[in-house]
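Shapes recur. One chain:

:::
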Amino acid sequence: MLIKLWLNGEVVRDHIDPDTLLLDFVRKHGCASVKRGCETANCGLCTVLLEGKPVLSCSTLAARAEGMHVVTLEGLQDEAREFGEFLADQGADQCGFCNPGFIMNILAMMEELDDPDDEEVKEYLAGNLCRCSGFVGQMRSIQAYMKYKKGGA
C-alpha cells in the first residue's frame, strides 16, 4: 500500500506492508533517534510526535499516520540540544540511550501542560524507562528547563 505523510516537515511517500510499524518506517527514512527497546510499548524509547502528540511508534501502524505530521528528534534538533544541555548540566544524561524518547515526551509535555508540578511531570513520563538512574537528575533538569523557559534563568 502507498502512504504519504510529513516526516520532520518533509513529504514522504512510500509503499509499505499493512503491518509495517511506524518505528520501522521512520528508521527506514533516516530517523535513527527512534529506538527499539522493549517492543511491548513500555519503555518510551520509540516515542515520536504524531500531530503534535507523543505516541509509541512500536505499537502504531505506519498506515495510521497516513496524511499526518510525524516528528522525531531529528526534526527538533534545536529544542533537543537546548534541553540536552540541562540534562548534561544535572548529570542526568548517563548512557543516553533513553534520551531521545525522554526528550520527545518533555517537549510534548511543555506544549501540553502550562505549569506542571512534579507529580504531573512524573505522571506524564510514567512510560519512560531509564536503567541508568533513578530519575532524580532528570527531574532536576526538567525543573531547571521549565524555569528557564518561563524566563527565570
Q: What stands out?
A: The beta strands are 2-7, 10-15, 47-50, 53-56, 69-71. The CA atoms of residues 52 and 108 lie 7 Å apart. The two ends are 50 Å apart (CA to CA).
